[in-house]
Design goal:
This protein has 15 helices and 18 strands. The chain is an alpha/beta fold and 419 residues long. Helix 11 crosses helix 13. The structure holds adenosine-5'-triphosphate and ligand LCNOYBR7. Belongs to the four-carbon acid sugar kinase family.
Length: 419
Amino acid sequence: MKLGCIGDDFTGSSDLANTLARGGMRVVQYCGIPAGPAGDDVEAGVVALKSRTIAPEEAVRQSLAALDWLRAQGCTQFLFKYCSTFDSTDRGNIGPVAEALSDALGGGPVVFCPAFPATGRTVYQGHLFVGDRLLSESGMKNHPLTPMRDADLRRVLARQTSRHVGHVAMADVAAGADAIAEAISRENDEGRPFVIVDAISERDLVEIGRAIPDMKLVTGGSGIAMGLPANFGCRAGGADRASGFARPGARAIALAGSVSRATRGQVRAHVAAGQPAFEVRASDVMEGRLDPETLSDWLLAQPGVPLAYSSVEPERVAENQERYGKEAVAGAIENLFAETASVAVARGAGIVICAGGETSGAVVSALGIEALEIGPEIDPGVPALKVGGRELRLALKSGNFGAPDFFLKAARIMGGGDE
Ligand SMILES: Nc1ncnc2c1ncn2[C@@H]1O[C@H](COP(=O)(O)OP(=O)(O)OP(=O)(O)O)[C@@H](O)[C@H]1O
Ligand SMILES: O=C(O)[C@@H](O)C(=O)CO
């Protein structure tokens, strides 16, 4: 293994694995830290953790354990993948995890670049944009667990770390790899080793990749991986990821525990397309009126691509949090989806489409999945996935990713949904 990656959630890890596969690397996504060694042919390993919103000390512990495993597989460069909207709080976990990984790897400058232009996330003058809005004016300001209310990444990161934060601005990035490398060294030499790097296009990301072949620790969204495969001699356009992937006729179910804007639009579009949809109400979950068996029975009795969703507007999420407690309601809904997936798969579902990072982490853990192979891309940042050794296909969609018809498109690509 050459490139060792640690993802702070499961959907984000599949987003990263997708980018690396597009760059020509043979990639496996591991769900948690594997017990044994990786296969000899794996060039990039992505260890998916569910560490984005847990206590910082625990996120650090798990990330260091993942690093140990990746080092034991022979990796020479490491990538810490977080969200392209820099999801975190003043306690972490981006700063504390990056600090711990950097220390373990002997220090030196570390790049921070969440840009992912294909999904509208760009970094300019140290500020993160979502489309034409500052992060702090995007839907992320209402995120249920990591509301992002400051778009200046230099300030956001500085609140999470004792390291000094530097910046490489667009003027240097636009001048290409050599200028970027020089600017990163300048920041580090002046005592600012944690360097936010601007990027507004894929070309910028490729140049940043070219500038950092020897940097031990790189951090960012999946976009930062665009330029890395070439440093390991890999070239885009290798294996056909679609060949032999689909499972025609498999039963597909969709589970949306994401409350992001894009998911809410996808739920509406699914309902408008006449597909079966079941609203999971927080009150029913919290007050014991809905259980996984009932939900799974409903899903398996429907034609097409049945969807169970708890996605509601931010005001209703806030009401639920107020009434039941933020962690309690989040955990109970995640558990319901996780156990529903487990029951539905045991009863014959062959395709599980899941929306939301936290939700996907819970579902994948409940399904006891250890490793995922990367199939064709469904939408930018979302690959179809194949479970090693099992006839099961998955899609793990980050909250804000995907076109309005995502659920139907995902089912079609994976072969299911009796359309
Ligand atoms: N109706 C609801 N009321 C309160 N909390 C909810 C509701 N529906 C879902 N949740 C919780 O909100 C959280 C949503 O996080 P999740 O990561 O799954 O989706 P997301 O934030 O939209 O996606 P991503 O992290 O990929 O951008 C989960 O913990 C989920 O259980
Ligand atoms: O980077 C992103 O936006 C996604 O991969 C993700 O991590 C969202 O949860």
